[in-house]
Design goal:
Layout (H helix, E strand, L loop, with lengths): L1 H18 L10 E3 L4 E10 L13 E13 L2 E10 L2 E7 L5 E8 L2 E11 L4 E3 L2 E14 L13 E14 L4 E13 L22 E14 L1
Antiparallel strand pairs: 1-8, 2-3, 2-12, 3-4, 4-7, 5-6, 7-9, 9-10, 10-11, 11-12
Length: 223
């Protein structure tokens, strides 16, 4: 599968130079992306399961902003800050003193992320489209305190996020961005959760690495 994707990438990346042969400049489907910097308002939805017991932040809208700068033709670096209004399972002790999981509580998360993005059509658009692939490294932290002494505390976590998407340029400065991405982070549970009598988690569940699907759109301005 990886070899097929690599071949497809090379074929698509080679198209801009080949496709312009035989086209007069005014008729070419390709247009140069001349602006080097951009600001984008982001809106999205973070999915995921929250781990074995649903304790991790998941399922909710996210919104924020992104600053991008093209450093060499198709290559762009960016920084983004977002707020995600997520939820997590509620943990509390019942009348017998045993930990119990029931219902959900708000689990808002802030994220800061730095990305590297590669435009498949080079430093150009094709009929206004500029598809891309990329990846980012970020840090996510809980946006409010936990509720109750036994509630799960997400704290702060580093994560990495591969993504694929496209920009559609309405004009040389304005564009719409659509993207599907993953967010991979690790959950670590406190010792009381593993207690043989009152705990809620078996040893196999320690330090879960989670994948969260993240859908995202944006409205951007280049300058």
């Amino acid at each position: 599968m990886r070899h097929v994707l690599a071949l497809l990438f090379l074929l698509v990346a080679a198209r801009p130079a080949d496709a312009q042969v035989g086209y007069p400049p005014s008729k070419s489907p390709y247009r140069d992306i001349t602006k080097k910097m951009s600001l984008t308002a982001l809106f999205g939805y973070v999915g995921g399961s929250g781990g074995t017991l649903g304790l991790g932040p998941h399922d909710g809208p996210a919104y924020g902003g992104r600053f991008g700068i093209a450093v060499s033709g198709p290559l762009e670096f960016s920084f983004a800050v977002q707020y995600a209004d997520l939820k997590g399972a509620r943990v509390f002790r019942n009348l017998e003193g045993n930990l119990t999981v029931s219902g959900h509580l708000p689990s808002p998360v802030w994220t800061f992320e730095t990305d590297m993005q590669y435009t498949i059509t080079g430093g150009k658009t094709w009929h206004g489209l500029a598809p891309y692939i990329g990846g980012g490294l970020g840090y996510a932290w809980r946006g409010s305190s936990t509720e109750g002494p036994d509630a799960y505390d997400f704290g702060g976590r580093f994560y990495w996020a591969p993504f694929i998407g496209t920009r559609y340029f309405v004009n040389p400065r304005s564009f719409i961005r659509a993207e599907i991405r993953g967010a991979f982070w690790r959950l670590a549970y406190p010792p009381p959760y593993y207690d043989d009598i009152t705990g809620i988690i078996q040893s196999f569940a320690i330090n879960n690495y989670l994948s969260n699907v993240w859908y995202q759109v944006g409205f951007g301005y280049s300058f």
